[in-house]
Amino acid sequence: MMTVSTSCYMCRFLVRAPPLKSRSAVRCPSAAPPGASGATSTSKLVLEVKERLAREHPGLPTGRYGRDDDDMVLWFLKDRKFSVDEAVSKLTKAIKWRQDFGVAELSEESVKSLYQTGKAYVHDSLDIYGRPVLIVVAAKHFPSTQDPVENQKLCAYLVEKAVNRLPPGAENILGIFDLRGFRVENGDLQFLKFLMDVFYYYYPKRLGQVLFVDAPFVFQPMWQVVKPLLKSYASLVRFCDAETVRKEYFKEETVPPDFRD
């Protein structure tokens, strides 16, 4: 087994994606429906989705992140390229998940036991592209001893926190997986599948880029399994080293503590 000290060396042999140069590079691909005449057409589609949800799924909650939340409905319409049927289907699944999982009730106190391990957190500062930053420290993840349900709750809480910190005009967050010190016992395919579902079904288009930092040799087999499952999301992944994180994604004063010299 190759030691962790070789991680930077191994990163040079993995496919890299260039850093995103502007926020516009990660915005939704379609800002208006095909053939739309403007805001009026978009508003009609939002209203149509809301009416469908109210008629077909009256038991879904209302209010923020509910079936009558204009912003949420519009976001899912954009994600589904303004297909009303597809937006209704995906919104129904997302709202039911939020309700069943109790996302609105999650708090730092409710995930305290795992949150205090420092295995994952939302960075206090935005990156240089104005995105909230969610950091995962893989070496502190132990699936054999940590409750998988509690891990999922921590994940949902932090993703929700990061999305809620989006400043006006920003649409995506940056995910950083700190793989320094990663060992076989830190691998957790089931959790990664849950995380993929979260971003595909419940927070679509909210993940702007993912950095895998200083991936050691032992991470490569897991990546080969995970990559096909990511489908188009695999293009968001960039393998890099800690220095790249410091120099290309943050100002000197906003570098996350775990990545400072």
From TrEMBL:
Signal peptide: none annotated. InterPro entries: CRAL-TRIO_dom, CRAL-TRIO_dom_sf, CRAL/TRIO_N_dom_sf. The lineage of its organism: Eukaryota, Viridiplantae, Streptophyta, Embryophyta, Tracheophyta. Gene3D superfamilies: CRAL-TRIO lipid binding domain. SMART domains: SEC14 (SM00516). Residues 108-261 form the CRAL-TRIO domain. This is Sec14p-like phosphatidylinositol transfer family protein. It comes from the Eukaryota. PANTHER family: SEC14P-LIKE PHOSPHATIDYLINOSITOL TRANSFER FAMILY PROTEIN.
